[in-house]
Amino acid sequence: MKYQFVIITFVILLILCCTTACQPKKEIVIAPDEILLNHSFTDLEGNPVDIKHYLGKPLLINYWATWCKYCLKDLPVVQQFTDYHKRSINVILLSDENTEKIEHFKTKQDYEMVYLKSDKPLSAYGIRQRPAFAYFSAAGKHLETINGSVDVEILFGMVEYHKAKQHKLNQ
């Protein structure tokens, strides 16, 4: 079953690449929706971060915590997703824990991802459980939220679904 999913995903990717390669690039108008504009965060040095810096490409925000065992279980999956999509999708790990805890975790791990600290409790963004994943378009439009643990197929499938949906809208 997993093998069939991988084959189908590959075929869809191949078709999308072939059909979109000849089309002119459209300019992306960065206009984050209210969900994304509500976010307020800093880097681990305490500097404010403008969410628009991460737009222009689709954005995946992983809401997580160092104490959450399912979050920790998902991090290798998120790293694999990040590595595969590093040129086409921005990925942020967002926690509302204190900066010291996040920094301590980051230094003990071998993940090369963007860690940011939320200035608000994650519940202010409607996040009621961890892990959770929010996927936004390159312009900042909220496309989907996944509550709970994920695997590679779920994250890759989400991206392919939204690519296919966008491609269909552009025809």
Describe the structure.
By secondary structure, this protein is an alpha/beta fold. Helix content is 40%, strand content 18%. The protein is built from five helices and seven strands; from the N terminus they run H-H-E-E-E-H-E-H-E-E-E-H. It has a seven-stranded mixed beta sheet with strand order 2-1-5-4-3-6-7, with helices on one face. Helix 1 runs parallel beside helix 5.
List key phrases describing it.
171 residues; globular; 7-stranded mixed β-sheet; 40% helix; alpha/beta
- Global morphology: globular
Instruction: Give, in order, the helices and strands.
Output: HHEEEHEHEEEH
Distance between the termini: 31 Å
Would you tell me the structural class of the helices and strands? alpha/beta
Annotation field: number of helices = 5
Number of E-type strands: 7
- Note the main sheet: 7 strands, mixed
- Rounded to the nearest angstrom, the radius of gyration is 16 Å
**Share of helix, binned:** 25-40%
Strand content: 15-25%
Q: Any low-confidence stretches, pLDDT <50, length ≥5?
A: 18-26
Biggest sheet: strand arrangement = 2-1-5-4-3-6-7
Mean pLDDT rating: 84
Q: Which helices and strands appear, and what pairs or packs with what?
A:
Blueprint: H1 2-20, H2 34-37, E1 41-42, E2 48-49, E3 59-63, H3 69-84, E4 90-95, H4 99-108, E5 114-118, E6 132-136, E7 142-147, H5 152-170
Parallel strand pairs: 3-4, 4-5
Antiparallel strand pairs: 1-2, 1-5, 3-6, 6-7
